[in-house]
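Lab notes, practical 5.
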Amino acid sequence: MKKTTEIIENLPKIISNGPNDETREILKNLGLNKIETDEVLDIISQGIGRAELYKTGIKPEQFSSYLDENLIFQKTIDLATSPEIKYEVNSDNLHPKLKKVFKNDSKEKVDYEKLLSEFNNSKNENREDALYDLIEYKYPKVTLLIEDSLFDKELMVQIVAIQGISKNIVTPSLEKKLIELFKKTENHTLISNLTQVFSQFNIKKALPFVIEKMNSENLMNTYNCIICLGNLGDSLVIDTLIPFKEIRKTPEIYDENGFLSQTTQYSIRKITKKTIKKLKKRFN
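Output from the prediction step:
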């Protein structure tokens, strides 16, 4: 990204301001157009979100994201976790885990029946919050609940279900459901979360399907599958990866207005070369 050094120099002010007119004017004065400004603000927003998740106790190694090596993203996390930087967070559109941090919710009283009623109410616009609470408060049938929620009609419910998986609830049945969802979806957000779960819990049974999904028409899915192969695979998958070194495109996702909403730090070619190097180092 252009003007990275200048943007980083202004990050303390930008983070403290939030995405207001003054912030946009700062970025405009650095030579960024509207699309570039929106992209930078999105990276900063995601960095703040990651920092807040770290504050809840989630460890950095639990994440693998296309932004992980983005300098602006990493500096935002550093600054947002520093007590010297003050900022406000609008919790309305946050992940349920972060909503609880800002609302200071207590764990003292847990009404499973009430939470289940809220989750099963199709008219409830915050069903993902109820699911998060059921997972967080260790609902006795949480594994079955997560399995069913993987195929929910609401994307955020699916995401919360995937992100709610912990080592002690991973069963052969749950692994089968995760792989089933992975095979049938092309949604890049689900693919990203699923590949992270495969990597985190070393779900080797997913490997042949990850290899197959690398040929997705959505290059973001290809990118995440390559990263997953670097975590799950062995030296035998290197030959499978080699043809992807010829893809010089960088994955991009556009919103409904035609604006760039997501991209990756590396092209498919570069992430493939890095993954092959990682595998060779591990197995040679």
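Observations recorded by the TA: The chain has a mean pLDDT of 87. The first strand starts at residue 252 and ends at 254.
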